[in-house]
Amino acid sequence: MSPAADERNRICAAMDRILRGTPQRSNGALTIVALATEADVPRNALTQRHLDLKNEFYEKVRARGEMPDSEKRLRRQLVKAKELRAEALKEIDRLKADNEALVGALHQVVMENRQLRLQLTEQPSNLRVLPTQPRPSAHQGGPPAGG
Question: Up-side HSE of residue 98: CA atoms within 13 Å toward CB?
């Protein structure tokens, strides 16, 4: 018997054992990894050389009304991803609202500052106005020297 034929026979026997619920070498999961372990073949034997047997295994699993473990895992991951997306969208909405509130507060402070400066310019000359912090001019690269 050729190595490929022996491999195919081992895979078919392993498929039957797993589907009967009597695995000998694997945990009996409905996965290609478990099937390869049960058949004592490398995983790529199913994913590259014997694709027909891999597909047959999944067809038999579905025909029994069951879902392959890999599909169950992907469905759980999809549910989790949808939950995370919903949480992220809520966080984005919250951050947008916070941003709008901060922009509004900044605008209010700027307007109050302008109003106070206007009031200061209208005060009698005996009041002292505190100096503002110097701003670098456009031709300077940084803060004033010696500061």
Answer: 6
Quickly list DSSP for 60-124. HHHHTT---HHHHHHHHHHHHHHHHHHHHHHHHHHHHHHHHHHHHHHHHHHHHHHHHHHHHHTS-
Spacing of C-alpha 19 from chain mean position: 34
110-146 residues labelled b (16+ CB within 10 A) or e (exposed) = eeeeeeeeeeeeeeeeeeeeeeeeeeeeeeeeeeeee
Of 32 and 145, more confident: 32
Using the Cα atoms of residue 138, residue 142, residue 145 and residue 147 in order, give the sign of their dihedral.
positive
Q: How do residues 94-147 score in pLDDT, each as one tens digit?
A: 999 999 999 999 999 999 999 988 888 876 666 666 677 776 665 555 555 554
- 2 pLDDT exceeds 70? no
